[in-house]
Design brief:
single chain; 6-stranded parallel β-sheet; 14 helices; 11 strands
Length: 364
């Protein structure tokens, strides 16, 4: 079945321009068909903290309107936009929107069904709510950072994927959509408080379930999914590139060791005392051939062995190419996800509008 409209077509969302999670959330919502209007800082409001880096990707699919949030005329026009919006998203520190006269109570008075989506590192409440921080700080506090990296080194930051995007933006999006469904039923909007500490903590739920059963310890690199198991980690190949091995289930592990020329007697899977020796054995074997040679060798085996591609290599891989996982919109970039019937290529960044033009379009 093919549909002509994207799933969120007809929704209008105001995005108060920011960095990190609110920008990513705006992109995801626009990819799904929402009409997202970015309210950016005008020249009269002073220079922004950062230049528009990455806008070709992160700002795709939505128009921008320059506003001065402290200007009474712009303030009034923003309230007019709010009257026609389904939701707003913002990522300012707690209290900023209230000081600007644009807090949840003010906006709800103008539009009772409005969903007010907020994303911050520490959340809107708690003793650290007003503190500064970045992704690495938030996932450090939630317990999500400690298991990452090598056992004899400090934890390694996983880019800003776990806090900003996984624990922040995606929980903002899911919370916003849940609140929008509720508003459609009740006619009453609500505030979504997406904290990166909360979201990244929830992402570790499986490992909290493992702990009381003795299946997970705080020793980094000593557990099933943190590189401690020789059958779930990356290995360096002869050419200095890498393969990823994820042979967790016994049948996949059997294919792995067969592909490496080993027998079950030589390499028992769950003899944890023998894991260090097995690590060394696997390392020596994978170091004998180039990455792509190993990838070809395991291509027809259900062993969960795949190449570790760079971001530059990933778009050309046959699987990614067949699915159009990446698209070229002047800049090669990831396509929208997940897929829906009739999903279209992402639209490039739309041209800037004046505030009056934006109001006229929303009133049409």
């Amino acid at each position: 079945m093919t549909v002509s409209a994207k799933p969120l077509s007809g929704l209008r969302i105001l995005e108060f321009d920011g960095l990190g999670p609110v920008t990513f959330a705006g992109m995801v919502l626009a990819d799904m068909g929402a009409e997202v209007l970015r309210l950016t800082r005008s020249a009269s409001a002073g220079a922004a903290a950062f230049s528009d880096v990455g806008g070709e990707v992160m700002h795709r699919g939505r128009a921008a309107v320059a506003v001065n949030l402290k200007d009474p005329a712009d303030h009034a026009r923003i309230l007019d936009l709010v009257a026609g919006a389904d939701a707003i998203i913002e990522g300012f520190r707690p209290g900023v929107m209230e000081r600007l006269g644009l807090g949840p109570e003010v906006l709800a008075a103008r539009n009772p069904a409005l969903v007010f989506g907020r994303v911050t590192g520490w959340g809107q409440t708690g003793p650290m709510a007003d503190k500064v921080g970045h992704d690495i700080n938030y996932i450090g506090l939630s317990g999500a950072l400690h298991p990452l990296g090598e056992p004899d080194r400090p934890p390694r930051a996983p880019l800003n994927l776990v806090g900003d995007y996984g624990g922040g933006a995606m929980f903002l999006v899911s919370g916003l959509l849940a609140a929008l469904l509720q508003a459609k039923t009740t006619g009453k909007g609500s505030v979504v408080d997406a904290a990166m500490t909360d979201g990244s903590a929830l992402l570790t739920g499986l490992f909290h379930a493992f702990r009381p059963r003795g299946l997970w310890s705080d020793a980094r690199g000593a557990n099933l999914l943190d590189g401690g198991a020789p059958f779930y980690r990356c290995f360096t190949c002869k050419d200095g590139r890498f393969v990823a091995v994820g042979a967790l289930e016994p049948q996949f592990y059997a294919a792995l060791i067969a592909g490496l020329g080993l027998t079950p007697e030589e390499a028992p899977q769950f003899d944890m005392a023998n894991w260090p020796a097995l690590h060394a054995r696997f390392e020596a074997l994978f170091a004998t051939r180039d990455r792509d040679d190993w990838a070809a060798h395991f291509a027809d085996l259900d062993a969960c062995v795949t190449p570790v591609l760079t971001m530059g290599e990933a778009p050309a891989h046959p699987h990614n190419a067949a699915r159009a996982t990446f698209v070229d919109q002047g800049v090669i970039q990831p396509a929208p996800a997940p897929r829906f019937d009739g999903q279209a290529t992402p639209e490039p960044e739309r041209p800037a509008l004046s505030l009056d033009d934006a109001l006229a379009a929303w009133r049409a």
